[in-house]
């Protein structure tokens, strides 16, 4: 079955729909977030959601896609300015901590979609494609920093980025599940592993 591709929807209505779905999932979870709820909260017709997104799964993927692109875009400028491997690591850690503290809904939705993807091949395909695009974007930045002499990667850039993203996903899960624990020691251990991969030392 072909994945449903959302029609082009830009501007204020698109933002309202995406924000309504994001807030609904945070309150009700994926199963409780119906098109009826989202349409009412976004102030649009239910038919408009069906017309532009087709399925709830396609809208959920669009929410994650926008959030992921926003997060990656926020990495571009500080990573471009990084002069050392520690600068690069500092940017990545700060981005992770900021997103967990200030945008926990992104992680909640991502983890919910992972679970939903185990039962729905369409969601699994779309989220997998999103991960691939995100990984490739950051891997190209790493290659650029290696050409500048800032990094000396221990392995292929795609593999290094994939590992670092996996560590970040796991850290986010721990930080959200156990918010009262001080995770500084885990972050420090992850930083050591990252430094080894980014410096070849």
Architecture overview:
The structure is a single chain. This protein is an all-alpha fold and 201 residues long. The protein has a domain at 63-199: Tetracycline Repressor, domain 2 (Orthogonal Bundle), CATH 1.10.357.10. It is 79% helix and 0% strand. It has helices at 12-32, 35-42, 46-53, 56-81, 85-102, 104-117, 121-147, 157-177, 184-199. The relative contact order is 0.11.
Structure keywords:
201 residues; mainly alpha; Tetracycline Repressor, domain 2; 9 helices; 79% helix; disordered N terminus
How does the SSE layout of this entry go?
Layout: H1 12-32, H2 35-42, H3 46-53, H4 56-81, H5 85-102, H6 104-117, H7 121-147, H8 157-177, H9 184-199
């Amino acid at each position: 079955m072909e994945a449903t591709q959302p029609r082009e929807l830009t501007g204020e209505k698109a933002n309202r729909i995406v924000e309504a779905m994001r807030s609904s999932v945070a309150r009700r979870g994926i199963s409780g977030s119906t098109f009826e709820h989202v349409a009412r909260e976004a102030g649009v017709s239910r038919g408009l959601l069906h017309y532009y997104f087709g399925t709830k799964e396609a809208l959920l993927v669009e929410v994650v896609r926008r959030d992921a692109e926003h997060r990656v875009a926020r990495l571009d400028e500080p990573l471009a300015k990084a002069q050392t491997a520690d600068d690069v690591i500092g940017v990545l850690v700060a981005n992770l901590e900021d997103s967990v503290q200030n945008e926990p809904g992104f992680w909640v939705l991502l983890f919910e979609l992972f679970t939903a993807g185990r039962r729905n091949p369409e969601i699994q395909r779309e989220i997998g494609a999103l991960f691939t695009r995100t990984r490739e974007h950051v891997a190209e930045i790493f290659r650029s920093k290696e050409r500048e002499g800032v990094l000396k990667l221990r392995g292929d850039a795609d593999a290094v980025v994939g590992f670092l993203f996996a560590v970040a996903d796991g850290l986010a899960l721990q930080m959200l599940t156990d918010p009262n624990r001080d995770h500084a020691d885990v972050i420090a251990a992850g930083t050591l592993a990252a430094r080894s991969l980014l410096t070849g030392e």
